[in-house]
Amino acid sequence: MSDPQIRLLCYNLYMERPLIQQIQSFAIPDGLRKTLLDLAGEAEKLSPSLSKRTAWRVGYALERIASEAADASLDVHWWEIYLYMLGKYAAEAGPTGQAVVDLARKAVSPLRSHFGPYQPVTLRLIDADTVRGVCLLSDTLEEPQNSMVAPNAISLAQAHFNPHAWFRAIYAGKAPVGFVMIVDDDQTPEYFLWRFMIATPFQRRDYGRQAIERLVDYVRTRPNARELGVSCGEGPGSPRGFYEKIGFISTGEVIDDELVLKLAL
After folding, report:
1. Strand 227-232 and strand 190-198: pairing?
2. pLDDT digits (tens), the chain, 265 positions
3. Which residues of the chain are in CATH 3.40.630.30 domains?
């Protein structure tokens, strides 16, 4: 089922009957049903205190989570991103939204059990069905991380004006977890990691390291490839430690206030 089809399904379900009634009818484990019902119930109480736009976002996130939980045939899973964003939207309401924030955190474990583990990590093309969700991944980043990498929407726009841009969504199993883009110019021996991010809910789960391994596998197939470069800002939120841990070495060179590191291929 494509992303537009899922959005249409969510809209149709919402128009036909309230989300709580939908969840009650889903063929899902009773424990998961209770988790989703509790979350939907608290979100319903919270909605009147939210702006119309935020209330819509909360409702849509819940509908996406519930619809994915009810349909095991889906090829792409976005639920963990929408669950994280649901908590983020609720947090904007301050103490009033804390119950939703707490329930969203508690929902992670039963939902992960329901969907199963997300392995292996792969790099996949972004298409019309997934581009919206890939852009949403950037919204999960908080300060200071979000100041260290451009939003995915900006990266995708830039890619379409650079003939050497090569970009992919990073998947862990069925779940899009991040984004990577390189300068893929086969006339030079150095390929450059232009953008790289892992969404907050998927950090510290080894997906970043595996994604770089998949990227290196690709770059090694390219003509004249001898090294992969990257640059990063320093200070709080800097990914320098991550890059050095997986084998990148600082060159000491600074370009546009960013330290340049290189990985021999």
Report:
1. parallel
2. 555 554 544 544 444 457 888 899 888 999 999 999 999 999 999 999 999 999 999 999 999 999 999 997 899 999 999 999 999 999 999 999 999 999 999 999 999 999 988 889 999 999 999 999 999 999 999 999 999 999 999 999 999 999 999 999 999 999 999 999 999 998 887 899 999 999 999 999 999 999 999 999 999 999 989 999 999 999 999 999 999 999 999 999 999 999 999 999 9
3. 121-264
List, as own/partner pairs, every contact residues 25-31 make where C-beta atoms lie below 8 angstroms and the sequence separation is at least 24, other chains included: 26/66, 26/69, 26/70, 27/70, 28/69, 28/70, 28/114, 29/110, 29/114, 31/110
CATH assignment of 121-264, among 3.40.50.1110, 3.40.630.30, 3.40.1620.10, 3.40.140.80: 3.40.630.30
Helix ranges (DSSP H) in the chain = 3-16, 19-25, 30-46, 52-70, 79-91, 98-115, 131-137, 152-159, 207-219, 240-245
